[in-house]
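A reminder from the course coordinator: this example appears on the midterm review sheet, so study it carefully.

Given structure:
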């Protein structure tokens, strides 16, 4: 019995050490470098903790709104180039940033840091566009900075695509056999924040999402304060929603944007 308890204690200690040492590496998977020429304007921002952040800004001459777009946990803005150009054609101006540690941005990513990155991006865009015509847009992990920012500013709207209820909920899904959620220091507690966001909201999710389960999208929608609407899709997985549903996806975005910024 004593040996069993010792073995259990060693396992628990090992889990604690792994979470403490590698938590951020499990959550953030940045690609540094590999960012080509901007399809519009290169943007450089300095955050409140003096980290230099890089992004792209593209304009549309007939834009009805401006999108502040936060991407997911892997890669960098280069892998979103094609999406950026489609979003511009809604028509909208679009600012996309690489979080600290991604692409050309300095630093190392963590939850407080990406919140600061988002705030710097908002301040840059709000100096060039009417805040009530800015739509904050978060995809997957990008829903974390998007929700946090939307609780702090008065924006025209909020789009959340394929986002999770919280990082701790996701950890229980990814590693269900270990008590990782009780050890995590990263929260991204979107579920508790969404009820506080007054801006009009559009939640997008696929019922076949293979990374962030659809039930999380449903829970977020139920918790969200009005006004709110959803666009639930079928068949697409976490990473190919725009490819599977194409025009239907962008048409749904266009309708929402035109409604909230009219």
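Designed residues:
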């Amino acid at each position: 019995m004593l040996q069993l308890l010792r073995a259990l204690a060693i396992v628990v200690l090992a889990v604690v050490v792994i979470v403490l040492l590698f938590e951020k590496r499990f959550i953030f998977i940045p690609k540094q470098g590999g960012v080509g020429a901007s399809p519009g304007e290169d943007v450089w921002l300095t955050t409140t903790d003096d980290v230099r952040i890089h992004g792209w800004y593209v304009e549309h001459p007939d834009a009805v709104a401006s999108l502040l777009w936060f991407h997911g946990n892997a890669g960098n803005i280069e892998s979103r180039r094609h999406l950026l150009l489609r979003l511009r054609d809604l028509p909208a101006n679009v600012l996309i940033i690489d979080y600290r540690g991604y692409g050309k941005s300095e630093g190392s990513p963590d939850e407080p840091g990406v919140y600061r990155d988002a705030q710097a991006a908002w301040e840059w865009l709000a100096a060039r566009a009417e805040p009530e015509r800015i739509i904050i847009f978060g995809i997957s992990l990008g829903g974390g900075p998007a929700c946090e920012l939307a609780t702090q500013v008065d924006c025209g709207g909020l789009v959340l695509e394929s986002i999770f209820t919280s990082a701790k909920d996701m950890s229980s899904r990814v590693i269900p056999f270990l008590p990782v959620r009780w050890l995590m220091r990263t929260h991204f507690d979107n579920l508790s924040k969404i009820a506080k966001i007054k801006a009009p909201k559009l939640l997008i999710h696929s019922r076949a999402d293979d990374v962030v389960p659809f039930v999380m999208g449903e829970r977020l929608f139920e918790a969200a304060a009005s006004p709110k609407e959803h666009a639930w899709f079928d068949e697409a997985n976490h990473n190919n929603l725009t490819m599977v549903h194409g025009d239907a996806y962008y048409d749904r975005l266009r309708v929402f944007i035109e409604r909230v910024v009219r």
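The helical segments are 2-27, 81-88, 111-126, 143-152, 167-174, 190-194, 214-223, 241-260. The mean pLDDT is 91.
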